Structure prediction request, 410 residues.
Amino acid sequence: MYRQRIRTMAHARQGGVAILAITVILLIVTTIATLMVARVGLFEQKVVGTDVRSKEVYSVAIGGLEEGVNWIEDNAIGDIWDLTDADACGAGATADAPALEDTVLNTNAYERDVTYVAITCLDPDYDEAPLIIQVISEAKGAEGGDSHVSKTVYVEVMRGRQAGIGGSAPGGPMALNGPPIMTENCMSGNVSASAEVQPNGGIAIGTTSGTVGCLDHDKLDLGGGTKVALNPSSSLWNAIFGPHVTKADLKQLYMADRAKADADEGYQRRIIYVDSSTFDYHKSEGCANGQLSNFSWHCNEGSEDLPVVLFFESATDCPSINGGNTVYGLVYFEKTECDNNGMGNGTVYGTVAKAGDMTKLTGSFTIIGESLEFGGGGDEGQGSGPTGPDDPFEIIRFAEIPGSWADFQP
Prediction:
């Protein structure tokens, strides 16, 4: 019996040692597993943090590139280089844009920098070698230890020319082949029998959005011409100027052309834009009399070789063309709710265009339909052709070159 008790106590001690060993082993395994999980979590945290910073710096670089392209579109001509001087604008010549402010995303600050590199210069004859500029945007961490977080992207832009009238192809003559009367919608009301219309290409009246049935020309003799509706329909502006030319474009061209006319007494202006800000100027020269909302236009404008655009903004209502004057070109009335009452003894060679409806075309008014070619001309000081550098109808455009965009680490 005594031996049995000793044997039982020995087995108990052996069982306790085994439990201790198993517990230690489990503790070690648990510790190792915990360390592995912590390591994986830390690694994933680093990966997530790196991904976030990468996306942030990429976003900042793209934003800087967009600002750079917009800035060069507004400032590239004349403000960066002399773009026709090979010495000033040789391949690789660089220019810096105004400094961009730092950007903060979440709690991370990034520096931004945009640089321009001239790939080619502008051909002074406007014939070949378009201007190509590479816009490079760099973003990097603004903190001292974050400068390694960086991204550089670039895109190439090309200077192009766009016709300002009629949506003509770049490089070709800017033309309008319209009827003598163009209206956006319908024609109605008191249309004077004393007004005279000579068709252009057999068409006397055209509508861009209305129907032939709503063109009630009343007592107006169409001179044997017909009435037509544009198909597919379009706004009057798009039908004449095209969808890519804006009023701001037209006024900018007018201001540049007016400056040439002010500087050179012999220069024949090509664009007249009348609104509340330019009315006093034209009134002082004797072309506009009366008040802004009730005046007549008395000046002769344009010539057979150099037609004009005479644009009356909506603030002017629909001023009369009278006083025995002659206009060669396009006369455009922007306001939709006004009538063309009181046109007297004026003559337009080209097209009279009216937004909205045309009503009350009264007076001894003559409109002789002619196709208009606005670009270039042969007079000295008026440019060297439809693609000449002095052409007042040229609109400067910048467009990204397809396939030129790239991102890379510096």
